[in-house]
Specification:
This protein is an alpha/beta fold. The protein has eleven helices and seven strands. Strands 3-2-1-4-5-7-6 form a seven-stranded mixed sheet, sandwiched between helices. Helix 1 packs across helix 3 and helix 1 crosses helix 4. It is globular and about 55 Å long.
């Protein structure tokens, strides 16, 4: 990738660096043997900035642990996608955006599955270069287009996506980086090409995560990279319900979204002014 990175490229390389670090742990929640190559030399530098903000020397941590969060998120969505793939009716999975995700390469998938990755051309080109010698374990099809483009649905269907049969969508590391209007627009467009019974999963933060003073150091890092956190919701179920989905929202640390790694207490949903992250997952009505 270019030395001058845009916001999309920074967050993709950061995630790859986090996954590479997790994969070196003896108690790792998953193994991503391709993450280090995908992170390039820049991903670790970005991770060092996050680590310095999260774990300031000589002071107690007050920010949520990004490494633990990312490890839990990756494993949670690994399990979610593999569970979906075990359903005989699941024939297509879409990652939007795909970033430096290597699930098509590091996990096993049924032969009937078509695996679609949507992302900007520079992101997908970097991945193709880094993984040129690796064969994906799925029928992987790339769609090199920005999700803000007016015709990405056409490009997806040209790659073989069928809007008339159920699909599974993963919107990972996306919604808090885009304005509220764009969040609704993307959910509306995804719903429009998802048959009834289609699955969807995403992560999203609540309002306090954008406003609490103890989040400022982390938020400032992302803002300094040109990718500030912009959107939040305290009612993720209602957000997705408005676009035709019945979903549940789990917080890291809750049963099924912990894996023995979340280091903080999990505040009840009815407690106000607590920073939260939600793993949203459900189906299209």
């Amino acid at each position: 990738m270019s030395a001058t990175l845009d916001a999309v490229e920074r967050t993709a390389l950061l995630t790859a660096a986090l996954r590479a670090t997790e994969s070196r742990r003896p108690d790792r929640l998953y193994d991503d043997p391709y993450a280090a190559a995908l992170a390039d030399g820049i991903g670790p530098e970005l991770l060092a900035e996050i680590h310095a903000a999260t774990f300031p020397p000589g002071r107690e941590r007050t920010l949520p642990s990004t490494p633990d969060y990312n490890a839990i998120r990756t494993r949670f969505f690994d399990d979610y996608l593999q569970q979906a793939a075990r359903d005989p009716q699941t024939t297509q999975i879409v990652l939007a955006p795909a970033g430096m995700d290597s699930r098509a390469y590091r996990l096993d998938w049924p032969d009937r599955l078509r695996w679609f990755e949507i992302d900007r051309p520079a992101v997908l080109a970097h991945k193709e270069r880094r993984l040129a010698a690796v064969t994906p374990r799925a029928d992987r099809r790339t769609v090199a287009v920005d999700l803000t483009a007016p015709d990405w649905e056409d490009a997806l269907q040209a790659a073989g996506y069928d809007p008339n049969v159920p699909s599974t969508w993963l919107l990972e590391g996306l919604l808090y980086y885009i304005p509220e209007a764009d969040t609704h627009r993307i959910l509306r467009r995804v719903a429009a090409i998802s048959a009834p019974g289609s699955r969807i999963a995403a992560d999203i933060v609540n309002a306090a995560a954008l406003t609490r003073p103890d989040m400022r150091a982390l938020l400032d890092v992302f803002a300094g990279w040109g990718c500030p956190w912009l959107f939040s919701t305290d009612e993720p179920e209602a957000l997705f319900d408005a676009h035709g989905y019945d979903v549940r929202a789990a917080q890291p640390g809750e049963t099924g979204a912990d894996f023995g790694r979340w280091p903080d207490t999990v505040p009840p949903r009815d407690r106000a002014d607590e920073r939260r992250v939600f793993f949203v997952h459900g189906r299209r009505r």
